[in-house]
Amino acid sequence: MKLQISSRLAIFALLELAARPDQQVSVAEIGEKYGLSNHHLAKVLHTLARAGLVRSVRGAGGGYQFSGRPRRTTLLDIINLFEEFGSPNASSADAGRTAEEHALREVLHEIDDMACATLSSITIATMRKLIERRRVEKDRPVRLPV
Amino acid sequence: MEADQRSARVTDAVSVRRVHAADIVHIVALDERVTGLAKPDYWHEVFARYGRRRVAGRVFLVAEAHGVKPRAPILGFIIGEVRAWEFGSAPCGWIFALSVEPSARLHGVGQALFDAIAQEFKQSGVGKMRTMVARDNRLLLMFFRSEGMMAGPYFELEKELV
């Protein structure tokens, strides 16, 4: 499964902003951390602002601030701002006439359905917890066998 | 910080205890409010198997409001059991029912029940717990995900019998 670059940028940007909800974070700062194009990132943040997930703060020290609901905003909500993911329409576009085509469509639909259920059950808050857990695991000293 | 605040809220507002026979009528009513189906026979049978006597590895817990007059006698319940070697799985705690009073949601009730059953399973000697959730039950999926549950190594498969 592959996400479009805009969806990935949006998820990274929101995770970064949600980690510091009281701060304004500049496009350049997020871009530098993930090695992303500032131009593309600015366009993505504009879309997120229109969706009410971030707000832009103008002036010196300005940037973007998280304004969504971290325990309610899911990965699928974010992805659907940039691409049509796993919708019934997307599957029926390849609807075929033969039994073979229908059988393949049924299997692909099952995969889409599972991907959608996963992405719609993971919120920004859950992702932040996951990130913290991974960070703790990474920082835990490795015990070498004696 | 967030975790500290959350656990303080949970312990201040909610207490979790083992189920009593007198709770079953409220459990039937809560389940009916949530699912739209009354299943009194089922819940009495579940109580007989999981709640009436203490059996190692079987857990039936209820949450109630602590220190304040509750809107409902029972704020939620959770049921689970340690099962071994089914589907080739090593002993593991299974949560097979969790429900929270709709008006009491987002106040740490589910969290308190989840933590309590995790503790019970740990004391039973297992290091893992799992559950099964309908793919379209977004709320419950979001809850279990927020508690750190991830997809496990099994697929649930089914077939229409014609």
Would you list the SSEs of chain B in sequence order as H and E?
HEHHEEEHEH
Q: What is the level 1 CATH name of chain B?
A: Alpha Beta
Global Rg of chain B = 16 Å
End-to-end C-alpha gap of chain A: 42 Å
Order of helices and strands of chain A: HHHEEHHHH
Q: Decide which structural class fits the backbone of chain B.
A: alpha+beta
CATH third-tier fold name of chain B? Aminopeptidase
CATH level 1 class label of chain A = Mainly Alpha
How many domains would you count in the coordinates of chain A?
A: 1
Estimate the global geometry of chain B from the Cα principal axes. Answer: globular
Lateral strand order in the biggest sheet of chain A: 1-2
| Estimated share of beta-strand residues of chain B | 15-25%
Distance between the termini of chain B: 55 Å
> Main sheet of chain A?
2 strands, antiparallel
The percentage helix of chain B is 25-40%
| CATH architecture descriptor name of chain A | Orthogonal Bundle
What is the H level of CATH, i.e. the homologous superfamily of chain A? Winged helix-like DNA-binding domain superfamily/Winged helix DNA-binding domain
Oligomer: heterodimer
Query: What structural class is derived from the secondary structure elements of chain A?
Result: mainly alpha
Structural key phrases:
heterodimer; A: mainly alpha; Arc Repressor Mutant, subunit A; two-stranded antiparallel ribbon; 2 strands; 5% strand; B: 162 residues; alpha+beta; Aminopeptidase; five-stranded mixed sheet; disordered N terminus
Give a structural overview.
- The complex is a heterodimer of chains A (146) and B (162).
- The longest helix of chain A has 21 residues.
- With 146 residues, chain A is mainly alpha-helical.
- Chain A is globular, with a radius of gyration of 19 Å.
- Chain A has a two-stranded antiparallel ribbon with strand order 1-2.
- In chain A, strand 1 and strand 2 form a beta hairpin.
- Chain B has one domain: Gcn5-related N-acetyltransferase (GNAT) (Aminopeptidase, 3-Layer(aba) Sandwich).
- In chain B, strand 3 and strand 4 form a beta hairpin.
- The chains are: A mainly alpha (146), B alpha+beta (162).
